[in-house]
């Protein structure tokens, strides 16, 4: 973990972190990092209408291009991604 200025920190993306974020009400991680980025930086978000959100970023109209939002749905990641396949860091803000 890297602590910056005591208010913002980066944590490695892990199943444990995803579980903590989900317990805190977060549903997705978004990133402007390219889809091929080996170490994307994610920001957690609380999206109540996930289907509406996905439609608003045009995820259903041909998929995400490399220049669009890189999106990780927390529940889907916990159920379908092996721990060793998770990559990146999550930008967290201390409340």
Task: Briefly characterize the structure.
The protein is of the alpha+beta class. It has three helices and six strands. A six-stranded mixed beta sheet has the order 1-2-6-4-3-5.
Architecture blueprint of SSEs:
Blueprint: E1 2-4, E2 8-12, H1 15-23, E3 28-31, E4 41-45, H2 50-56, E5 70-73, H3 74-80, E6 89-93
Parallel strand pairs: 4-6
Antiparallel strand pairs: 1-2, 2-6, 3-4, 3-5
How would you describe this structure to a colleague?
The chain is an alpha+beta fold and 95 residues long. It has one domain (2-93). 24% of the residues lie in helices and 27% in strands. The chain has 3 helices and 6 strands. It has helices at 15-23, 50-56, 74-80, and strands spanning 2-4, 8-12, 28-31, 41-45, 70-73, 89-93. It has a 6-stranded mixed β-sheet. Helix 1 runs antiparallel to helix 3 (74-80). The chain is globular and about 35 Å long. The protein starts with a strand and ends with a strand. The model has no long low-confidence stretch (mean pLDDT 83).
- How many domains, in number, for the residues? 1
- Strands of the widest sheet, in order across it, are 1-2-6-4-3-5
Count of separate DSSP helical elements = 3
Measured distance between first and last alpha carbons: 17 Å
What is the β-strand count?
6
Summarize the main sheet: 6 strands, mixed
- What characteristic shape results from the CA principal axes? globular
Low-confidence stretches: none
> Roughly what percent helix?
10-25%
The structural class is: alpha+beta
Oligomer: single chain
Computed Rg: 13 Å
Give me the strand/helix succession.
EEHEEHEHE
Strand fraction band?
A: 25-35%
